[in-house]
User: Which sequence fits this backbone?
């Protein structure tokens, strides 16, 4: 196998695995801030114990996130040296800023939050939980800045055979940064909401710490509803509009628009085939895509046929990942909306099937995150920096295929083990449940 | 001083900060391999439990800063040292998860696995840290295009392994002093004993490696000897080395820790000074070396990054100091502990 393909596989594997953990940390981090707030302000022992319980799960998640995150910081240099030299003038700064503004905050205050409960005052302890969540959220910002610059580069000039910075502001706030940031962070908040809701539902079903679990569930369900609605409108919608304007090839690929047309249809369901690219068993509504993307039913949208063949992203994967993400997003709205209605009717906790569904739904926002990320990254191909540098020209020239293969196998085994241990310990901890009061 | 030089020293500060902070984590981790029972092992882990993760961020930030300021070095060194870096990452992963994983299950065979992960996950990074510095001091086969031409085994040359051992000894001594400040009783006196013995080993190794680099890499000394700072670092280094056993014996472990931190600072500072303005000397031809000028980012990027550093780093140091202050004093094993 050639080194390029292996390097891509390795990146996909390491980022894919790593990206399971930060969304939980960010979402759960903010829910912990709320739990600790109620625990402190209402002086409610139940919320304090809830915080302690979920903080344990947070610490476990955070540890695996940190462990797998270190790899990412170095992988651009190890596997993508040509890319690193080409973009280093711009791409390195957000990574360094992430360290200075986010990682120190997150990890420093996590120590204080986990181990300082009896060493500092309540306000400072709450503040440390806030700083953990803020740190995680700032960290996401700088990573999205770096990645968005790959999608819609700005604030640079090509000079000395590389991209050189001309405006830090323009590079940071390039056309896709802000909307992608909101879209991604909100996805993380949904992930946190379903994590807490699913675990609380499990505790209720098992009859463990029912009062605590019901309060946690209530918090998570309402939080989940708000964040799921926001993800559709405005974040998802605005993000799609941005892609339609700045990356038309990606837009055509994810929407399955293979021929240019006015009154472009919104595809609700289809089975994509690739050679030649076409959709079968299509359910679509004429004109809706034109209207959604450009506010005009008659707007002409470029299809895949209008782009040079060498600039077209993989069609099957982008279409499938994007559409399944949307389906999951709709599911999140439906289930949290129904659960909120039942909360209002005061009989959510009697609906055993729904509680079970919540528990089984814990991984679904993670799946949506992965699918969305796939649509974003595969949709950018064949470019590593859109319009500037092709992925094929970006890998390390001094690293051989066997070396990469070796490291793929190495990290594959390590990650498999980490993933299995994480799930094993998480389930164990959840089954054990919150520590009893005054224990 | 121009921007490129400022960034040379800022990256240096990050590396020194990392060596001082994660250095004692590594030392405590290595010493945990010699702990006598479960309680002692837990004391080792919890001595660094609340702070090790923040300490490791110095490495991540150092990597980011290197990428931002000297992307050619970041790309050349990391792709060149490929397999060594992959091994380093795996060992850092093992240490990172060992804290959480170990404490979650009470079986002794389970805990033994994570004791090894913690110990080896501290020992190997400490060794590789030194091996990496050894290779830089020794010179690396880099061609005119800034590409690494060596092999994995080429990195494991005797000189670099020597520096690796020096770094293991130094960090273990540093960690032993830290451990002494966090414990009492039998464990504390053993830590003191370790620190004193390792000091002797350190002095021997340091003398050998200095002579070796004098003979093997004369370019390190050619320019730097004219710099007055070289002698300031030297005086500081000799002073801290001489003072260290005295202060350890006196039982003032806070002061001893500060002294060994200063020792690390002056030693790495002197190495940095010897390299300046080179970042990666080429062993093929010194003229091919990556320097702070031919490997750097544009001046606008360096300027922007400097602002980020000047705004961010003082805040980081302030709250990090506060957090270390909160966890001062002896280790207490409580319900929250690992």
Assistant:
């Amino acid at each position: 196998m050639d080194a390029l393909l292996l390097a891509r596989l390795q990146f996909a594997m390491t980022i894919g695995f790593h990206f399971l953990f930060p969304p939980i940390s960010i979402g759960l981090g903010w829910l912990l801030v709320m739990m600790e707030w109620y625990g402190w302000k209402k002086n409610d022992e139940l919320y304090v114990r809830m915080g302690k319980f979920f903080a344990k799960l947070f610490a476990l998640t955070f540890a695996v996130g940190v462990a797998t995150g270190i790899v990412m910081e170095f992988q651009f240099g190890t596997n993508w040296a040509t890319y690193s030299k080409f973009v280093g003038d711009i791409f390195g700064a957000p990574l360094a800023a992430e360290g200075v503004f986010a990682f120190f905050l997150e990890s420093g205050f996590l120590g204080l939050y986990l181990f300082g409960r009896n060493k500092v005052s309540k306000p400072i302890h709450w503040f440390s939980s806030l700083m953990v969540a803020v740190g995680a959220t700032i960290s996401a910002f700088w990573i999205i800045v770096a990645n968005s610059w790959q999608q819609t580069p700005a604030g640079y000039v090509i000079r000395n055979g590389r991209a050189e910075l001309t405006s830090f502001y323009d590079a940071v706030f390039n056309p896709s940064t802000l909307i992608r940031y909101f879209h991604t962070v909100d996805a993380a908040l949904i992930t946190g909401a379903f994590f807490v809701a699913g675990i609380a539902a499990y505790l209720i079903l098992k009859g463990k710490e029912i009062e605590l679990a019901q309060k946690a569930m209530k918090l998570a369900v309402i939080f989940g509803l708000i964040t799921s609605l926001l993800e559709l409108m405005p974040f998802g919608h605005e993000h799609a509009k941005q892609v339609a304007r700045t990356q038309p090839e990606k837009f055509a690929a994810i929407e399955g628009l293979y021929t240019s047309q006015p009154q472009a249809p919104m595809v609700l369901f289809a089975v994509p085939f690739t050679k030649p690219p076409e959709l079968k068993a299509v359910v679509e509504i004429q004109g809706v895509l034109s209207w959604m993307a450009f506010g005009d039913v008659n707007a002409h949208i470029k299809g895949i046929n209008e782009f040079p063949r060498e600039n077209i992203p993989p069609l099957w994967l982008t279409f499938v990942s994007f559409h399944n993400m949307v389906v999951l997003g709709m599911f999140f709205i439906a289930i949290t909306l129904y659960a909120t209605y039942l909360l209002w009717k005061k009989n959510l906790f009697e609906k055993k099937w729904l509680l079970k569904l919540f528990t089984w739904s814990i991984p679904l926002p993670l799946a949506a995150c992965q699918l969305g990320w796939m649509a974003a990254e595969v949709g950018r191909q064949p470019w590593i920096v859109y319009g500037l540098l092709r992925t094929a020209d970006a890998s390390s020239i001094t690293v051989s295929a066997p070396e990469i293969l070796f490291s793929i196998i190495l990290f594959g085994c390590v990650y498999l083990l980490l993933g299995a241990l994480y799930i094993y310990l998480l389930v164990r901890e959840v089954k054990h449940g919150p520590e009893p009061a005054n224990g | 001083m121009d921007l490129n030089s400022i960034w040379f020293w800022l990256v240096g500060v990050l590396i020194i900060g990392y060596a001082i902070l994660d250095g004692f984590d590594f030392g405590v981790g290595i010493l945990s391999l010699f702990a006598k029972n479960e309680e002692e092992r837990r004391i080792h882990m919890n001595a660094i439990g609340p702070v090790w993760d923040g300490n490791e961020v110095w490495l991540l930030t150092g990597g980011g800063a290197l990428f931002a300021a000297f992307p050619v070095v970041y790309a050349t060194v990391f792709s060149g040292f490929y397999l060594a870096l992959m091994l380093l990452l795996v060992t850092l992963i093992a240490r990172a998860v060992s804290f959480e994983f170990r404490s979650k299950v009470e079986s002794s065979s389970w805990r033994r696995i994570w004791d090894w992960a913690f110990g080896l996950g501290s020992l190997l990074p400490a060794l590789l840290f030194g091996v990496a510095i050894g290779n830089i001091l020794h010179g690396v086969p880099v061609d005119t295009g800034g590409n690494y031409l060596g092999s994995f085994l080429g990195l494991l040359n005797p000189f670099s392994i020597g520096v690796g051992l020096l770094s293991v000894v130094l960090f273990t001594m540093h960690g032993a002093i830290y451990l002494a400040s966090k414990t009492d009783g039998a464990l504390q006196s053993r830590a003191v004993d370790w620190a004193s013995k390792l000091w002797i080993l350190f002095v021997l190794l340091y003398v050998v490696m200095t002579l070796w680099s004098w003979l093997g890499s004369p370019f390190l000394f050619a320019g730097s000897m004219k710099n007055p700072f070289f002698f300031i670092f030297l005086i500081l280094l000799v002073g801290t080395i001489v003072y260290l056993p005295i202060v350890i014996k006196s039982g003032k472990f806070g002061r001893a820790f500060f002294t060994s931190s200063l020792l690390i600072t002056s030693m790495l500072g002197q190495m940095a000074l010897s390299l300046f303005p080179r970042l990666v000397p080429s062993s093929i031809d010194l003229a091919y070396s990556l320097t702070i000028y031919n490997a750097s980012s544009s001046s606008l990027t360096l300027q922007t990054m400097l602002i980020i550093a000047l705004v961010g780093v003082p805040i980081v140091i302030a709250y990090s100091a506060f957090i270390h202050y909160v966890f001062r004093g002896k280790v207490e094993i409580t319900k929250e502990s690992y």
User: Anything to note?
Assistant: The two ends of chain B are 47 Å apart (CA to CA). The beta strands of chain B are 278-280, 290-291. Chain B has a mean pLDDT of 91.
